[in-house]
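The methods section describes the discrete structure representation at length, but only in general terms. Since the whole study asks how a given chain folds, the encoding of that fold should be made plain. An entry of this sort, consisting of the sequence and the corresponding backbone structure tokens, reads as follows:

. . .
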Amino acid sequence: MPFGCLTLGEKKDYNSPSEVTDKYDLGQVVKSEEFCEIFRAKDRNTLKMYTCKKFHKKDGRKVRKAAKNEIMILKMVKHHNILQLVDAFETKKEYFIFLELATGREVFDWILDQGYYSERDTSNVMRQVLEAVAYLHSLKIVHRNLKLENLVYYNRLKNSKIVISDFQLAKLENGLIRNPCGTPEYLAPEMVGRQRYGRPVDCWAIGVIMYILLSGNPPFYDDSDEEDPDNRDKNL
């Protein structure tokens, strides 16, 4: 290779913070999650509303990896039951991910209010989830964190579609995966046993989701979950 082709120490191009704020008006923080803060954002030109996820690089390697991973995966997917990527920026200190705004509630919240779903309503939710996951699996993408909290009604209309959100832990399946992650109640046995795994772990999580929709309770219940309500959201 000619010497002039070497790129050692090549400077990375970052977006300036003003590129983000010139295009979008960020409101107050709506929600804080493990890896990011979530805002409502308005496009200054179209006045259209979006969801913005802001990741602080100073919060560590896991946060930086989650942000880069979500951007990479969402750029690959386009499906009516998956919350779509609209825009993404990387500044020296943060990552900004702009997504479609889903104005409906999480399926988890509906379960808390209603107790459980009818068989008809369950089949409607499951059909949409299965179609979206089949699409992801056709691209060799494993979501790895399917749960009621990541199933959202797109709007507040009675016949609203369901969209899958949160792709921070999603992964391309290039051979079997080693590192377990996700939410404890939804983990497949091979993940709990720290064995290698692949796309079938999403199918296990879908089964858990269907069980909860129909019964109002998780299939594997531990009394300690009531004592530690935050436990259900912990990743391994």
